[in-house]
Structures are given as C-alpha cells and as structure tokens.
Amino acid sequence: MLAGERGEAVSLAMRLIVALAGVVKADRLIGISAAHIDSCLYHGPVGVAFAERLAAAGGRVSVPTTLNVSALDLLHPDLVNLDPPTRQAARRLMDAYVAMGCQPTWTCAPYQLPDRPARGDQLAWAESNAIVFANSVLGARTARYGDFVDICAALTGRVPDAGLHRDEHRRARIVFRLDWLGGHHAVPDELYGLIGHIVGQESGPLVPAIVGLPLDATEDQLKALGAAAASSGSVALFHAVGVTPEAPTLEAALGGGRPAREVDLTPARLRRAWDELSTTDGRRGLAAVSVGTPHFSLSEFERLERLLDGRAIHPAIEMYVSTGRDTLARLDRSGCTERLQRAGIRLVVDTCTYITPILRAPRGSTVMTDSAKWAWYAPGNLAVEVVYGSLEACVNSAVAGRVVRDRSGLLDG
Amino acid sequence: MAERSNGRATWTASGRPLVAGSARGIALVLDEPLSFWGGVDPGSGAIIDRRHPQAGDSVAGRILVLTAGRGSSSSSSVLAEALHAGTGPAAILLLEPDEIIVVGALVVEMLDGRATPVIQLDARDHRRLRTGDEVVVDGHGRLAVTSPSAGSAP
Predict the structure, then answer these.
(1) Which of B18, B73, B106 sits opposite A38 (nearest CB)?
(2) What is the C-alpha to C-alpha distance for residues A35 and B35, in angstroms, rounded to an integer?
(3) Which of A147, A265, A327, A405 is found 20 to 30 A from A179 (Cα to Cα)?
(4) Under CATH, which number does the domain B2-152 receive?
(5) Are B102 and A23 inside 8 Å of each other by CB?
(6) A278-412: CATH architecture
(7) What is the pTM of this model?
C-alpha cells in the first residue's frame, strides 16, 4: 500500500500508519472492521488541506466508517453563531469526509447507532468518549486514535498491532474501591461523572478497575463515567467489576497480575471532585443549562420527559440538549421532539454546545450541566462558569430559573 | 555530561526521536499533562485550560517539556493548526511516547515540509530540565541544555 498500488491516498495514509507503528513499537499491522472519524470537526486550515488532499487523490474508506460531531448543526443552521468564512470552511471539511465514503452520522456516540461493534471487534475509533465506551462497555478493541490517523486507518483498513488491540495491555493495573456504597442500588447519576473524573485524574497510563459499582449500572451511566475519565485523564478502557464484559471478577480484570495502586473513592474525595468540576456555586444566577455531552440517548430523552413532567423551561433560561441526528429522527416519530420544543428546550444535532458558538449567554455567565466532560472543557472553551449536577437537578434548575442543587445524600455522610 | 563556561552549565542528552527535526529555544516545563484541545488556543499558543497550573503561559516558540498529553483526541488537530500558524512549540520533549502529539507534528511535516521535533527522553534527563533552560535539539534526538541558573547549583 505504501508503494501506491492502491492509489496515492492510500499510500499517503499508509505513511502515517507506518510512522505510528514505529512510535508504538508494533511488529505488524492488523485489519479493522470499522472506523469512527473525529477529524471532521473544524479546527483550522490544516484539517481542511489534509482531508481535501486525501479526497482529491481518490481516497475511499475501506471499512464502514462513521463521523463524529462537526462544528455545524446542519438541521438547525441558525443555532450556530459562526462567521461565514469559518462556516464555509467547516462545511468543506465535512463534505470532504462524506466524499471519501464516510457515513454522515455526525455523532460522538456512535455506540448509540443501531449497528454497533461487538465484543472482540478490532476498530479504529477516535473521540475519547467513544473510545472508552467501545473498549469498556462493548468489549471491542481500539487504541486512542486521534485526528488524521482515524481517516488513515479507515482508508487503509489497517492499524498497528499494539496497545489496547492486544490482551496484555487490557489488564487492570490500578483498582478503585467504592466499598462504602455497599451495593447501593439507587446511586444518583451525578456520582458516575464524579467517579470518572477521579479515575481519570489518578490512573495516568494504567488501565483502571472499579470495584463496587452497582451491578445494574446503565449504559448511560457508564457513558458518563467513561467520558469524564477520558477528559480529566487519558483513560481509554476501564473495567467495572461485575458490570463490564471483560471483568466478571476482579481477578479476571487484573488478568492474573497485581495492581500497582489501589485508591479509595471515599465520599470526601467525591465531594472534592464536585468542587473541582464546578467553578461557581451558582448563587450569582443561572443563564443556561446544557445536557447531552456525550450525545443524549433515547433512554435519556425518556428520563428527561419524566423529570420535566409537563413543566416548561423558565423563560430567562436557555436549555440545550445535544444528540445525534439518528436519535432525533426517532424522537420525531414518537412526537417527543415537538413536546420538548413546546417546553422551551432547544435540540442540537451534528455538533455540541461546548465546541462551537451556540450559547447566547455572555462570557462569565453561569451554565449548569450534568456532564463532567462539559464541566471540564467549557470554562476554557466558552469562558463560562459551570455548576455540575444530576440531570434531575439540571431540569429543576432550568424550570426554576436558578440553580437548584441536590447533591446526593450519599455524599453528605 | 556537564561542563561550565561563563558560570553557566551545559549538559547533553540523547533521546528517541519520535519525529526527527532540529530546533532551538527556551524550555517551558509543564507541571501537569496538557490536552492541546481545550488547553491551548491555536491562535496565540496560550494555555487556556484554567485548571492547568501554567494557565496563561504561552507554548509558542518554546521547547515544551511534558510527561504526556491528556484527554481529547482532537489534540492532534489543535497542535497541527498551531504549528502551521507559527504559534506552536519549537520542539516537544516527552517522557511517554504520545501518538496524538506525534501525529499532529507529522501531518504538518507532510503538508508544509516543516519538521517539529518530538523527542522521548529517559526519566533522568526529563527530570533535569527546568523552565528557562536554553535547549538546542539536533536532527537525531540529541539535546544540548544550558541552564542560566547554574550559579545557584551546589
């Protein structure tokens, strides 16, 4: 492929894959069954030049390939407040990836699409929350691919045989204990983001195992945990003992080895995580509420409707829910879209509220979120103040027009 | 290796070039890992992650010393955009090999023909580097480091 017998685009892509194999000291390349591309989010002229060069050289993906969020909401174009030249460049980037045969899914939660990878599948996924979900919850295998490499893997169908593609690198080396929970089955949602935040901070390059998570933890809760751990740190795989597929027991998660470290996730440490994720207590007022990072699932929309219980959002509050266009199409059919819009909720697709200018609230305003990932990045990206809380607290705050905190009683002990 | 001239100590080290290239500049040693995406403004090179201990410092033209990257898979893009725009670091010295950083530098080399060295150092050399050191990187992963603060060394 390097020599160009499959065309110039594949030859260019192979150069990058081979260089990467050298960095990670892989002896060989392996085939992949799917790819997920993050490079379609506009950051500047280099991204466009790279994609257009590959597309112009005849690049076509060789495996089923989904696309991550972009900088635009193509279904609600007025939501995104970008200047026309940037909007045009962002659109050119998106078009180049579609021209190479990628599916225009525009979601950071490709694991919520109907056709998702199975346990043991070798993948080249980019987008940190998707990577950690694929490895941890689906039991599929992907290294932490980033921009540029993702499309090169999709074009060549090859990745270095290294890292999380191999058994020996998937074993837990650091153990987090939640013993005090005592198998509590009504763990509030906000705990999952807090747990993930600490796991990300403490794990470094080690694969973490978590002991004591409720056995009925949902995919939405594991999604929140993983996204948090991949934001505060570089976690690409976690094992939740008794919950995730490669961790029926702690011994299985450790693969016969011994952990390098053990960390107690005490209530005091979780309270500190809440303080780290919130930049304000919200007493100075509330301007907006943003949920859906990573993209809201259908079950999260069902929960949102139950929590709203027919109430409307306070007229002074902007409330956004980010989701994939595939999920939105299913919501449209059920009538949910119309009900949420009537309640004053703005639905965002194809992008997310913390990566492109959507919020109308001025810099320095307070925004509430149920996402540890959003709370981690938005203060830097958008220059806003953040209050972290459960989805229930977010909904109640959006209705009341002020921050309503419901920090879990579990944390007050 | 260390030698002294004009009261300044110079030492050399040899690392593993993940991206080969030559550079010269003043070291900025980060106290914590950094995600370029969400952490660095590619328009100016400033560190914008408010939770980072060195928030407000600029990576532009510096010999950036960090243990590893962190977080978002968009960091390759932000690094590439910064390098292309001239607001990126002059070289990056790592403790752990970081594919996301390497790819950002490689893509700019492929498109612009300009190589920004990314070097993996062993722990001992990595630990010796201080913010403010003058660092020269050659095309083979070798460094020459001059510490302006040598006068205060024992």
Answers:
(1) B73
(2) 23
(3) A405
(4) 3.50.30.10
(5) yes
(6) 2-Layer Sandwich (3.30)
(7) 0.92
